[in-house]
């Protein structure tokens, strides 16, 4: 792994594949370190002929954090949003999109395939809209336009976004992380207990930082919907979504596909809000097939 200065912050990143291959930028979701992209997915895309870059978003993992901004009042922000008031935040999704573009600049990459999951999907949507000359294609995975009135996720999945471990120990954090992965994960592709524990332990030990997740959540709230923005996107777009996503229902993905002119969409039964091992070959093949030639 390595670190560069970009867009006024430091960004931790990792690459796989040959620099001579087309670049593919992976952007993760809320509070999720770049290591939430499974290694098999990351390296598998590289073996499919791409120079793959994954990175920690600001306020996550080993990239610059914003501790000086303090903890946000998320209930108050949601109340403001519902009453039509403007919500202020230390940074917005457009700033996080500029981070990704800044990383490409630092790596001397003119254009890349932009692949984002969940909040990362929101970020690549903004990248494609604001920096079209930098995007070979966009793949929006298990994400949304943020349009008001779209179906909400299951209460137990939404509750995990603000949930906390039962105590301060490493084991408390690991148990909470496993509960989170089980709650939002794929019913058709359940992970074996030992495999799930190892995955969660790796990410807990790398960094446990809920304050950053809360500020990112505020950024999502404060940034609003992207309906009109998506209507103007000209980048070739693929939408991928699970039909059993408990956090962002499949209707959210279908909405994105409806808004972006000429986009393609593929949905999968049994897939939730994660990247399960059993789906990795399918996702790599679909993404690689779409991106090649773009």
Characterise this structure.
This protein is of the alpha/beta class and about 290 residues long. The protein has one domain (about 1-155, about 210-290): Alpha/Beta hydrolase fold, catalytic domain (Rossmann fold). The chain has eleven helices and eight strands. It has an eight-stranded mixed β-sheet with strand order 1-2-4-3-5-6-7-8, with helices on both faces. α1 packs parallel to α11 and α6 (about 170-185) packs across α7.
Walk across the major sheet and give the strand order: 1-2-4-3-5-6-7-8
Gross morphology is: globular
Report the biggest beta sheet as strand number plus sense, adding barrel if it closes.
8 strands, mixed
**SSE run:** EEEHEHHEHEHHHHHEHEH
The low-pLDDT segments are: none
Q: What is the CATH class designation? A: Alpha Beta
Structural class: alpha/beta
Separation of termini? Answer: 28 Å
Radius of gyration: 18 Å
Number of domains: 1
Average pLDDT across residues? Answer: 97
Number of helices: 11
CATH homologous superfamily assignment? Alpha/Beta hydrolase fold, catalytic domain
The total strand number stands at 8
CATH architecture: 3-Layer(aba) Sandwich
**Which fold name is given in CATH as the topology?**
Rossmann fold
Helix content: 40-55%
Key attributes of the depicted protein:
alpha/beta; 11 helices; single chain; 294 residues; 8 strands
Explain the layout of strands and helices.
Elements: E1 2-6, E2 9-16, E3 23-27, H1 39-47, E4 51-55, H2 74-82, H3 93-106, E5 112-117, H4 119-130, E6 135-141, H5 155-160, H6 170-184, H7 193-206, H8 210-223, H9 227-231, E7 237-242, H10 250-259, E8 264-268, H11 280-291
């Amino acid at each position: 792994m390595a670190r560069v200065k970009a867009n006024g912050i430091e960004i931790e990143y990792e690459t796989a594949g040959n620099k001579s291959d087309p670049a593919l930028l992976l952007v993760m979701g809320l509070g999720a370190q770049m290591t939430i992209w499974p290694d098999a997915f990351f390296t598998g895309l590289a073996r499919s002929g791409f120079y793959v870059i994954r990175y920690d978003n600001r306020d996550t993992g080993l990239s610059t954090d914003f501790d000086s901004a303090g903890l946000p009042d998320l209930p108050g922000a949601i109340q403001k949003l519902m009453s039509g008031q403007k919500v202020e935040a230390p940074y917005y999704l457009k700033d996080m999109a500029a981070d990704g573009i800044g990383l490409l600049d630092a790596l001397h990459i003119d254009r890349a395939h932009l692949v984002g999951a969940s909040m990362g999907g929101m970020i690549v949507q903004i990248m494609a809209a604001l920096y079209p000359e930098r995007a070979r294609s966009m793949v929006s995975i298990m994400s949304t336009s943020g349009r008001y009135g779209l179906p909400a996720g299951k209460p137990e999945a939404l509750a995990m976004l603000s949930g906390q471990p039962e105590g301060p120990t490493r084991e408390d954090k690991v148990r909470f992380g496993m509960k989170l992965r089980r709650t939002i994960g794929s019913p058709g592709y359940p992970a074996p207990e030992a495999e799930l524990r190892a995955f969660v332990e790796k990410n807990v030990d790398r960094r446990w930082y809920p304050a950053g997740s809360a500020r990112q959540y505020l950024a999502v709230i404060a940034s609003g919907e992207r309906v009109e923005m998506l209507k103007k996107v000209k980048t070739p777009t693929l939408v991928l979504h699970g039909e059993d996503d408990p956090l962002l229902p499949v209707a959210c993905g279908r909405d994105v596909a409806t808004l972006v002119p000429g986009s393609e969409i593929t949905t999968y039964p049994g897939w939730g809000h994660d990247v399960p091992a059993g789906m990795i070959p399918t996702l790599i093949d679909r993404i690689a097939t779409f991106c090649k030639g773009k």
